[in-house]
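Record type: monomer structure entry
Structure origin: computed from sequence
Chain ID: A
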Amino acid sequence: MDIRAILERIPHRYPFVLVDRVVEVTPRQRIVAIKNVTYDEPFFPGHFPGAPVMPGVLILESLAQTGALLLFDEVPDRGSKLVYFAGIDGARFRRPVVPGDQLRLTMEIVKMRARTCKMKGIATVEGEMAAEAEIMSALVER
């Protein structure tokens, strides 16, 4: 799934689109996406000057957007819906993410109900764990 298809499925726009490509989807189970982290990211000038590091909360947001892409695949009228964070458990950050890194974002459904979902997320760089968390989301009307 390329960036055009991603923008058709999620409501996020620049500078808050944190997924560049989807490389694997198993409907109702799992999704894998890519975020290419460049020096031009709008958060790097302030986080941190001279030593840029992607904020951990934005790595979690990248995982959440990846999960939303999986969830929105099942929603027929997704233009009228939003996916909100409902909770985050067990978030851990294992290595800094810096310009030039490619984040591989994997989200797997743990539990799914009509309007809520719990997913396990893992972000890696070159096979090395960068972050992990369980993310709960809620599907709401726009």
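Annotation 1: The mean pLDDT is 95.
Annotation 2: The chain has two helices and six strands.
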